[in-house]
Amino acid sequence: MRKTNLPDDHDLLKAIRYGQKKAFNILFDRYASQLHHVALKYTGSPDKAEDIVQETFVKVWTHREKLQPHLPFVPYIIRISKNLIINRAKKRLHEQAYLRYKSLVHQDIGDTTENHVFLKELKDLLETKVAQLPEKRKKIYQMSREQGLTNREIAKKLVVSESTVENHINKALKDLKNYLQTYKYLSWIPQLILIRIVLVG
């Protein structure tokens, strides 16, 4: 039974909107275990469920100005966590597709000198466009694609949110894709191969 001297969700959410971290910590302690149980049912992994809980509450804090204290909090965080789980599942599907296409393109392109020259030309085009990206976007892209850092690691290093990192990466990939597609002699390469092989490496 909850102690009567603890503030209710409504008061905590109002305080969080004003940036009060103590209120945020209370709310986290109150619902983290419940949310972990929900996430575990969908992910089947305690570690993944823990990541979902952490990322969900990061989003709550990051977007605290959008909180609506008069609405129930639990359905709100469950909706956030389910969206995160769905997005991760989509990402895994893309990664699996990338691996399949990478295998295919290696079989199709082969190891000839001509093809090495062709792939080098693609990478040169890519490097040219990367150098032209806005400075912050370029740095985040390079940390992700060239240094192999995760979005979370980049966010910590640059002291920004993971959603900011993800937005910059998505915009960079879109810019690079559009740039490469202007070269008509690349049209024979399936789009997924072009983006996942050339842009990811």
UniProtKB/TrEMBL annotation:
UniProt keyword terms in alphabetical order: DNA-binding, Sigma factor, Transcription, Transcription regulation
RNA polymerase sigma factor 70 region 4 type domain location: 125-176
Segments forming domain RNA polymerase sigma-70 region: 27-92
PANTHER family tied to this protein: RNA POLYMERASE ECF-TYPE SIGMA FACTO (PTHR43133), RNA POLYMERASE SIGMA-70 FACTOR ECF SUBFAMILY (PTHR43133:SF46)
Record-stated family: Belongs to the sigma-70 factor family. ECF subfamily.
Protein name stated in the entry: RNA polymerase sigma factor
